[in-house]
Amino acid sequence: SLRRCVSAGENLPAATWRAWHERTGLRLINGIGATELLHIFISAADEHIRPGTTGVPVPGWQARVQDADGAPVPDGRPGLLAVRGPVGCRYLADPRQRVYVRDGWNITGDTYVREPDGFFRYVARADDMIISAGYNIAGPEVEDALLRHPDVVEAAVVGRPDEARGQVVVAFAVLKEGAERDAGALRAFVKTELAPYKCPREIVFLDALPRTATGKLQRFRLRTTGGRD
C-alpha cells in the first residue's frame, strides 16, 4: 500500500537512495526544509528525481548560493544556501535573527552547489566542512563513498583537530552483522572512490551511530566522545 516516500531533515546519500529503490521499487522524494521557514523549499519528485541532489526550488520559493558577503557565486562553486519565500518565523529579541536573515534572504547554514541546469546539490553543513592540510573536504561525500561498500550499513565522518594538518578526517562505520571490522580494507575501498586526500585517516567501528529521538545524527558526540557515552 506504500506509494510515495519523502526524505527530509538529513542529507539523503545517493547510495541510500539506490539501496531503497532496489529493495522497494519506490523512488524517494528528497527535500530540504527548515523549522524557521515552516516548509520544504527545495525538492524534486517523480521523473525529476536525481539521486545525489536535493532538487530545485518548490513553487513560491527562491534559492541561491552565495558567499560569506552575500554575493551570488557561479554555478558549480560551493557556497552558503540562501532561500526566501512566502512563510517563515523569526527569532524575537534574539541576536540569531541578524545572522539568520541577511538582506531578506534566510541563510540556512548549509553549503550547497547549484548545478548549471538549476539543480541544487548538498555539500555539507557549513560548520561541518573539514579543512585538512589546506583541502576543503565535505564529510557527506566521504560518507556516501563508505556507504557504497557492501558491508557498510551506516557511516558518519567528522574532522578531528590535528597539529600538523589542522584537521584530519575520521570516519565512524556500522557494518552488517558478521562483517569483518577491517579498517585497512575499508580505507583502500574509499581510495578507489575518492581522491586520496579525502580518505579517512582513521576508521572507528560502532554498533550504532548516536542519534536524536527523531533520528538525526549527533555529530557533536562523535567529535567529543567518539559516539560512546
Question: Could you explain how this protein is built, in words?
Answer:
With 229 residues, this protein is an alpha+beta fold. The protein has two domains: 6-126, Luciferase, domain 3; 129-225, GMP Synthetase, Chain A, domain 3 (2-Layer Sandwich). The chain has five helices and 14 strands. The protein has helices spanning 14-24, 96-100, 139-147, 183-193, 219-225; strands spanning 6-7, 29-34, 39-44, 56-57, 62-66, 79-84, 101-102, 105-114, 120-125, 130-132, 135-137, 152-162, 166-175, 202-205. Strands 5, 6, 7, 8 and 9 form a five-stranded antiparallel β-sheet that branches. The longest helix has 11 residues, at 14-24. The chain is globular and about 50 Å long. The mean pLDDT is 91.
**Main β-sheet description:** 5 strands, antiparallel
**What integer is the average pLDDT?**
91
Radius of gyration: 18 Å
Tell me the CATH topology of the largest domain. Answer: Luciferase, domain 3
Order of helices and strands: EHEEEEEHEEEEEHEEHEH
Q: Can you count the beta strands?
A: 14
- How many discrete structural domains? 2
- Structure classification: alpha+beta
With helices defined by DSSP (H or I, 4 residues minimum), what is the helix count? 5
- Please report which band the strand proportion falls in: under 5%, 5-15%, 15-25%, 25-35%, 35-45% or over 45%: 25-35%
Let me know the CATH homologous superfamily of the largest domain: Luciferase, Domain 3
